[in-house]
Amino acid sequence: MSQNYYILFNTTIYSSTFTNGLNDKRWRTIFDGRYLMNLATGYEFSLPKNWALFADLKGSWAGGTRYTPILTEESIAANELIFDESKNNSLKVKDYFRMDLRIGYRKDRKRFSDELAIDLQNFTNRRNILGISYDLQNKKHVEMLLQGFTPMVTYKVYFSL
Question: Which pLDDT score, from 0 to 100, does residue 131 have?
Fold first, then answer.
């Protein structure tokens, strides 16, 4: 924290693969999104009598998870999903993106501090994709979505030794 302000940025570039132990062929895992970026920033405004107002902003952007294509005709004929194992995890869902905003106050006391905040999670209301499934009845891919915008009120107590 410098002059009541902070900022933190990090990025990771990675590869997540596996082998089956029978040959030297490598496949991507479901988690092989290739990159992840995070940003967290905030400001705290000090008030008299050990009160403080604060605002925090967090964001994450990551490559989407991977999935294996199905053999559509074979799956429909067998009435069960049959995956194209030669293309294991070769497809990728849309990238993950989320922004959170938190605004609140804190009161510092002798043995503890308490904090009340409004937390606007995923305030851009982006419905990120958890995964993809295939509906054999309707013969189409179906996206399983994560929760959108979620407002929360939080109260925390921090004890000092």
Answer: 87
